[in-house]
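Lecture 7 notes: from sequence to structure.
We start with the chain below.
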Amino acid sequence: MQKKQITVKNPSRSYLIEKIIEKKEGNLLSNGTVNVDTRPFTGRSPKDKYIVEDSFTKDKIWWGPINQPTSKETFISLRQELKAHLDSSNEVYIMNGYAGFDDKYRVNVQLITCSPVQALAYKNLVIPADEEKFKPELTIYASPYFSADKAKYNTNSDVFIIMDMSEKEVIIGKTVYPGEIKKSIFTYMNFALPLKGVFSMHCSANTDSENKHTALFFGLSGTGKTTLSVVEDRLLIGDDEHAWHDEGIFNYEGGSYAKIINVSEDENPMIYHALKYGVMTENVVFNDQRIADYSDQTITENTRACIPLDMLENVKSDGKASHPETIFFLSADAFGILPPIAKLEEAQIYDYFLLGYTAKLAGTERGVKEPSLTFSECFGKPFIPLNPKVYAQMLLEKVKRYGAEVYLVNTGWIGGAYGTGSRIKLRYTKRLVNAAINRELKDFEKFEILDLKIPKVCEGVPSEILNPSNVWTSKSEYEKKAKELYSKFKEHFEKF
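Predicted structure tokens for the same chain:
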């Protein structure tokens, strides 16, 4: 006799944690968090992401290696197989939540999955729904236990993330990594809201206690987006995804998907103290006493925590804020070329937003020590379904209308490249960010070699580091490397 399926609607965190442990997909650690192992996928699988090409999307989507097209027939057939798999599972979770704190633009999102890991991550990251009024608008079907037939569906692998923008459905298979669900919702918002005239942004945001001085932080992973926005003296709006419309900004999410490699009480106190029961962490190494070692990168450098916003301190609970006064483009420059902070002219804002520059380290590749350039349009290339120029033009229009100041901030190296120079001290970066927000930076000079305006002085920061050429042992070597980097910038600018 076939066992009857159990369908659980919006189960509690405790229920899902018990299921994760029962299925041996995670362990309860000494601080109360449940730590799950998402291997072999400890990050997103961008080559396995597709969007259905139909009459609605054909002329709207920015098609290419990021937004790969697939057919409606493929989507329908694979969805049918995935739903049959879910129907045959012993237990299925139906999770309801909102994307967006603004009632006018929020989207009702429903996740249907047989994975307690996916269900708990979703519960921690979305905005809780009013069950009595909830009707799904975007539906996600997901299972890490179901594979695509590569030969049949012409997919890159047995992993798949396919979005049907017309039907407002997403199917995800063979990966448990929670970032796939999170970023599928974000990709949908990046598609739907700009079509309504709302600027959708991959950034963190915070504001002061009076909600008068809002700041945005655009940046790729590892640039300090969460670290610089989750601070004790300002209210967090959100650490990753926001929209900007005529009434101000609002957060899309009800949680933080914080990167926690090397998280510490000294440098990241708010995140560190939020690691407690109810929070799910990913791929953290721990000892026999279930004590986590957040510095251990044995499994992955991309360790994460799914933290509900109400478990963090200093959060603006309504998820909204005033129009931004200060905007930061964060670049972790591993070449040691960019200044710690530079104020962008109006004509530069569009270019640097499309540039989306940071530098990735060589990681663990044997014998390779040189960092690599990374350009990610709008600081969010993997999640942008429309042409990047659409978002850049919306940003520029908002900046001009509301008078925001825009700064380029180097959170990476000074005094030389990675291996020679040193990473700029976090306390200096925080001081410069606060000085920009408080309008303390008034006396600027032109840094000709990079065509940037840099401050001459900032209280609490050594003046000599504000001009990066000052801290290289050889100014001529700095100038040579700076010209090389800037030429790469100009090449990228010319693409658009």
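Points to note: The mean pLDDT is 95. The first strand starts at residue 6 and ends at 9.
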